[in-house]
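Tutorial handout. Part one gives the primary structure; part two gives the three-dimensional structure as tokens.
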Amino acid sequence: MKPALTAPEVRPIAQNSREEILRAAAACFMERGYSASSIDDVARRLGATKGRIYHHYPSKADLFFDVYRMGMDLNFSAVGDVYHSDLGPYDKFFGMCRAHVMMMIEEQAFQRTVWEGVNLHLNSATTPDQRVVLERLLKMRAEYDQLFRTVMEACKADGSLNYKNQSIAVSTLFAAMGGPVFWYKPRQGETATQLENIVDQVVRFAMRGLGASERTAA
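Part two.
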């Protein structure tokens, strides 16, 4: 049976108004961080009243968690088709990595929120009730990681990747692929081809770290 690509805790974004709120919030969280952002900041960016936001979200934490959920939904959606394809292990893994890195760039604000959510967990900067929700979201992240672990093992079995400890390899892989979340800045006139080249460079660098041969990683 194929692993599910969504977690049961995810709440679908059915209303355009709600997605607009999430995108405005994600931009605020990326620019200011969770602690320094407020519902007022989100409302100003949205050009709306606080009431419009409170209609959907009773608190900033609830808003933050839904931004996190959407970020993970975007990730699952990006890699799903490749994961369930009939490609060989290496091509499948390479395609999943490319889809992931492209998502780090195209949905940078949401991905920064996912990163900050992990930090909130590690630093215990949450209330007990918030921690329950955050644990569910982190479980969703673990399910996403498992997709990559599964294909990595197939690559190791056929010799296209060569690493020793999978946990270390996965952590290092995501650290490398997540880099654009922090350093990428869109350039005026940047073309789709140039963006693809950035993605390829990041992925191939990460693949070499997993022991991909020069033939496969070049």
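Part three, for discussion. Confidence is low (pLDDT under 50) at residues 1-15. The two ends are 34 Å apart (CA to CA).
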